[in-house]
Amino acid sequence: MNLELHDVSAGYGAGDVLHQVSLDVRSGEIVVMLGANGAGKTTLMRAISGVISRRGTILLDGVDVSRARADEIVRRGLVQVPQGRGTFVDLTVEENLRAGALSRRDAVGVNSDIDRWYETYPRLAERRRQKAGLLSGGEQQMLAVSRAMMSRPRLLLCDEPSLGLSPKLTRELFASLEAINKEWDMGMLIVEQNAAIALSIATRGYLLEVGSITRSGDAETLSDSDAVRAAYLGY
Amino acid sequence: MEWELLMTRLVQGIVNGAVYGFLALALVCTYRGSKALNLAQGEMAMLCTFVAWSLSNHGVPLLLAIGGGVLLGAGLGGVIERTLVRPFGRDAEYPVLIVCIGLFLGINALAGVIWGGDPHAFPALVPDAPDDYISILGARLRYQQLVILGALAIVVTALYAVFRFTRLGLAMRASASNPDSAVLVGVRVSRMNALGWVLAGAVGAVIGPLIAPSTTLSTGMFFTFIIYACAAATLGGFDSPIGAVIAGLVIGVTENLIASYVGFIGDSLKLAVALVILLIVLMVRPSGLFGSREVERI
To answer: Is B297 within 8 Å of A82 when comparing Cβ atoms?
Structure first.
């Protein structure tokens, strides 16, 4: 599924946080959005997902969804893994997965998908009857990704997936995202502050600064660029 | 004789507690989604009871008239959420609380204008003569009281089944648990909140016509019940339907036993007993007996 943004602006009440952002994510590719705290990365994610109102054009496979409600966007196949994971802490692990599939109607497919994600993340299977709030940070992130995948999306947005995870868990998570990308031919737009690891699995990237895209290019070019190096890679 | 008194008090406590629990259940239904304490819940139930009474006075069979009241309650809940609660947006607990107080006064005054301030007799669903009761270990359980307990059991079981075993119930629980994430999995959270009000309106409208034969029908019939219901909902943890019902029963039984065995309290200080229980429990467990404690590991 292709995602295109043309001149998208959005904000909360007084003034815009995002200023005429244009970008695209092609079917099956991993695109990373780099940016410092407060650059507007989460606002961008919320604008694409339809959680906040936005201006400009957002196309999903050529269809304009800039006025669509959040649930319509989920049904069209674009799903977000929110920042801080956003699991339903007082629902069980299994109920979280079922909630992820609420936009679907095929009960049989949902059950087999649940088993599938239990195979991928055996820790979740062990804890299926536990409240999600009792999981560790890494387990919650696995749950958040699986929950998003339960709707059978065709494009995944991930908002700061490494937030609060140890370096080891971060590597595991990114390996797992890369595996999902390969296996499902799943397009992904990943917002990250951990530029090194994000660029290592991405094909292309953008740099968001104070609400505007200031740089874009393929992952190697971005890694080599001085601006990205100095600000996000630290060498 | 002593034994009989104990059983009588116990049965009375359970029946009272069922009424508190019923109304508390309605409070929990709205609270889970909108995070609003609907102080007008009792008045909405009173209005629906009056409407059921009017319908039955116009020749509609009583059961059907009560059904009409329940439908009105559901509709009223939905309309109130849509027009008076949703426009304030999320995190508007205080504005909505003020709206609820306004509704309390408004509905009460409206009912007074239409039906007057005098109490009316309300027909019972089942035979309610002095000898219409069953004996349980020496205590009398009137048929009408049996109906109240049965109705509570049915409503609680039905709600539990919906919340636990249906997609709709899962969507409602997900949006109560984390509205931001619920939106992102495709749940229409505002609809779920409205549905909470619809359910609450209906649940409240069930209890009114069941207690009216004994309390009589008047605009003030829910004044003390709503206080007890708030106490029960708080004690139960506010987001747990089962907790609200159990807490209602606990309060009903405790206050009746204490009122009958502690001389100086008697009937006049019963309400104070309920509030003291509440205070003690909340000091020990701020999230109530069954409320979901904030369990979160980062």
So the answer is: no
Nearby residues of A232 by Cβ (< 8 Å), 6 or more positions away: A34, A193, A195, A196
B38, B100 contact by CB (below 8 A) = yes
Angle at CA of residue B212, ends B207 and B218, nearest 5°? 115
CB contacts, 8 Å: A75 with chain B: 186
Nearest to A82 among B174, B181, B186 (CB): B181
Q: How far apart are CA B189 and CA A170, in angstroms?
A: 32
The one-letter amino acid code at B254 reads T
pLDDT band at A15 (very low <50, low <70, confident <90, very high): confident
Residue B297 CB contacts under 8 Å (≥ 6 apart), including other chains: A133, A134, A135, A136, A137, A140
List the domain boundaries for chain B. 2-284
Is a pLDDT exceeding 70 seen at residue B292? no
Yes or no: say if A28 and A155 are a contact pair by the CB < 8 Å rule: no
Q: Burial code of A11-21, b = ≥16 C-beta within 10 A, e = fewer?
A: beeeeebbeeb
CA atoms of B278 and B282, how far apart (whole Å) = 6
Tokens of B82: 């849509």
User: Across chain B, which distance is largest between two alpha carbons, in Å?
Assistant: 63
Contact A102 B178 (CB under 8 A): no
Strands B133-136 and A204-209, bridge-based pairing: unpaired
Q: What is the pTM of this model?
A: 0.90
Could B184 and A90 be called an inter-chain contact, meaning their C-beta atoms sit closer than 8 Å?
no
- Answer for the pair A18, A190: CB distance below 8 angstroms, yes or no: no
Can you give A128-187 as a three-state secondary structure string? CCCEHHHCCHHHHHHHHHHHHHCCCCCEEEEECCCCCCCHHHHHHHHHHHHHHHHHHCCE
Residue of A nearest to B167 (CA): A102
Shortest CA distance from A48: residue in chain B: B184
Residues making up chain A, counted from first to last = 235
What are the phi and psi torsion angles at B139 (to 5°)? -95, 155
Please provide the DSSP assignment of B23-92 as one string.
Answer: HHHHHHHHHHHH----TTHHHHHHHHHHHHHHHHHTT--HHHHHHHHHHHHHHHHHHHIIIIIGGG-SS-
Is the C-alpha dihedral spanning B23, B28, B29, B35 positive or negative? positive
Note the CATH number of domain B2-284.
1.10.3470
Of all residues in chain A, what percent carry a pLDDT higher than 90? 79
Contact yes or no for A173/A161 (Cβ under 8 A): yes
pLDDT classification of A132: cutoffs 50, 70, 90 = very high
Q: How far apart are CA B294 and CA B286, in angstroms?
A: 11
Cα angle B106, B112, B113; round to 5: 90
